[in-house]
């Protein structure tokens, strides 16, 4: 893993944007995208750029179960607001959180990922080291799957909902095995809430108890951190 230190999320977004530009110049066609507050400055760079995305495909990591795309807490809504409305793509794929048959939806999504190998994957990280919605204990061999969210994740995400009861208890998420298929992975983390996850990811043992630690085994990962997120690193 290569670690890049930045002053703040704005600078981190710009660094990630420049990495993406290089990959697009080399012919990248499919972007793996993430939600959360972390990648917002990166999306701002994309939106204000003159890059044409109309021949590119995007595949998102995850979506809550039970939220319609029109729900302002759904990840469909987030992606439209922060990127897709301003920058049309050829195709935008997100898991369908309203699918009647969730298992069938995971198979369908795995098929989409196989058809469109991800060239450039953006990741944030949860405070417990989750990536996508792969909570601690998730097998590294999982592809897209249905997830029961941990209480700590529900609590962390409740800041976006009017009450904690409104936070969905389940999600559909690309699995660790799906994420590892990406040719290049750029993970961003800012703030002291992320410091222990960043330490575990980079310096800890590779264990399913710290999902992001598996990135030590991928040969093209760049981690962008501010001083606070890097504060526990040796
Ligand atoms: C959610 C998302 C993750 C994201 C994480 C951290 O759980 N499923 O993809 O990385 O939150 O979010 P934030 O960037 O807001 O800290």
TrEMBL record:
The UniProt record lists the EC number as 3.5.99.6
Alphabetized UniProt keyword annotations:
Carbohydrate metabolism, Hydrolase
Please give one Pfam family short name. Answer: Glucosamine_iso
Q: State whether keyword DNA repair applies.
A: no
Q: Which GO terms describe its molecular function?
A: glucosamine-6-phosphate deaminase activity; identical protein binding
Q: Name one GO cellular component term.
A: cytoplasm
Active site residues according to the UniProt entry: 62 (proton acceptor), 128 (for ring-opening step), 130 (proton acceptor), 135 (for ring-opening step)
| Catalytic class of the enzyme | hydrolase
* Domain Glucosamine/galactosamine-6-phosphate isomerase, first and last residues per copy: 25-221
Q: Name one GO biological process term.
A: N-acetylglucosamine catabolic process
Q: Which reaction does it catalyse?
A: alpha-D-glucosamine 6-phosphate + H2O = beta-D-fructose 6-phosphate + NH4(+)
UniProt keyword Phosphoprotein present: no
Q: Which InterPro entries match?
A: Glc/Gal-6P_isomerase, Glucosamine6P_isomerase, Glucosamine6P_isomerase_CS, NagB/RpiA_transferase-like
Tell me the pathway: Amino-sugar metabolism; N-acetylneuraminate degradation; D-fructose 6-phosphate from N-acetylneuraminate: step 5/5
Q: Do you know which PANTHER family this protein is assigned to?
A: GLUCOSAMINE-6-PHOSPHATE ISOMERASE
> Which family is annotated?
Belongs to the glucosamine/galactosamine-6-phosphate isomerase family. NagB subfamily.
- Known function: Catalyzes the reversible isomerization-deamination of glucosamine 6-phosphate (GlcN6P) to form fructose 6-phosphate (Fru6P) and ammonium ion.
Name by which UniProt lists this protein: Glucosamine-6-phosphate deaminase
State the species of origin: Streptococcus urinalis 2285-97
Q: What is the lineage of its organism?
A: Bacteria, Bacillati, Bacillota, Bacilli, Lactobacillales
């Amino acid at each position: 893993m290569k670690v890049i230190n930045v002053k703040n999320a704005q600078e981190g977004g710009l660094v990630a944007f420049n990495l993406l530009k290089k990959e697009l110049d080399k012919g990248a066609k499919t972007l793996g995208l993430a939600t959360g507050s972390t990648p917002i400055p990166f999306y701002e760079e994309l939106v204000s750029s003159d890059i044409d995305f109309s021949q590119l495909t995007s595949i998102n990591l995850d979506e809550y179960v039970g939220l319609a795309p029109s729900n302002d807490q759904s990840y469909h809504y987030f992606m439209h607001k922060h990127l897709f409305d301003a920058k049309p793509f050829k195709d935008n794929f997100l898991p369908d959180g309203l699918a009647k048959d969730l298992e069938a939806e995971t198979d369908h999504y795995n098929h989409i990922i196989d058809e469109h190998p991800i060239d450039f994957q953006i990741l944030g990280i949860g405070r417990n080291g989750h990536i996508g919605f792969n909570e601690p204990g998730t097998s590294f061999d999982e592809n897209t799957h249905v997830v029961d969210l941990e209480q700590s994740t529900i609590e962390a995400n409740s800041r976006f909902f009017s009450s904690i009861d409104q936070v969905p208890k389940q999600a559909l998420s690309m699995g660790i095995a799906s994420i590892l298929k990406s040719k290049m992975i750029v993970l961003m983390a800012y703030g002291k809430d992320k410091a222990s996850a960043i330490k575990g990811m980079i310096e800890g043992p590779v264990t399913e108890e710290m999902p992001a630690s598996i990135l030590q085994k991928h040969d093209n990962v760049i981690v962008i951190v501010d001083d606070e997120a890097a504060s526990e690193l040796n």
